[in-house]
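thought: fold this chain, then report.
action: predict
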Amino acid sequence: MKILNNNTLKSMNLPFVLLVNFLLLGAVSCEKFELPEAGSIEDLTPPSANFSAVGTEDYLTYNFSNTSKSATDYVWTFPGGSSSTANEPSFTFPSVGTYTVALEASDKNLLSDTYSAQITVVEPPIPPAIAPEVINGDFADSSYDAWKIASFTGGTRNPYNGSSDGENLNYDGSDNGSKTAGAKWTNGTKAIPLTSSSRFAYQAHTISPGRDYFIEYSYAVKTGGADTDRVVVSILPGHYSEGQDALAATPIVEVPSTAILGKGNFTLAKERFTAPESGLIAIWMYGVSTVDSYIDNVKLYPAD
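observation:
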């Protein structure tokens, strides 16, 4: 590079010299600057990520409520590598346990914030099974309306014969000291063959679906043989208004008497069954006997 001395500078035009010096200095010391876009302002409200979670009827599935602020885009990270860009997603966890869920919230200025929380998934306790009330299960009400079906084509709505020859035990199991009321079937009111005098006792109930229950009753058969002289208590699936429909239904469980010990000598019969998914069942009782047969203290209750 040629060095200009004072004599040379004097012979040159001063403005030209200044311009040359400016250009030379700029070539040596110029730095590159990125200026903000025209009209841009500082982001005074950067994103703030936050959320809450609420369980659903399916205890493994949660709905997530996005409470983030100043954000436009979201990325959720769930267990097992699952993710979502929805504003408020749902997620089904694989099993009970404690899991971490994260949310990254960002805005159009490419600023972001992340919030994470632990979600503890627990299986809810099983609610107590419905304990139905068998109305007039001890047959103390002589009107026996609680055991009548709405209609019965070819039969009768009368459910049984009233009797004072029930067992000595009260409904709560305490000793009455003498006979109590009971239900009675005779040769003239036996269920089979079906006649206009055939008597069937019916009572509808709603119990907890899928839960186990017991049907229990006490019986006494005067004489005869088990094939020809017995009483039967069944649990039918569903509710019925017509006796013929109940008669045609396939029982969930059928509990016939087996012992023939004579009048006044009662035997306890009990059978476990599982409630249908509808929870609708009906007690269906009748006699198949040429002799007097008795039922008392009918009970329906959860197995556990």
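thought: worth noting. The chain has two domains: 51-121, 145-302.
final: tokens above.
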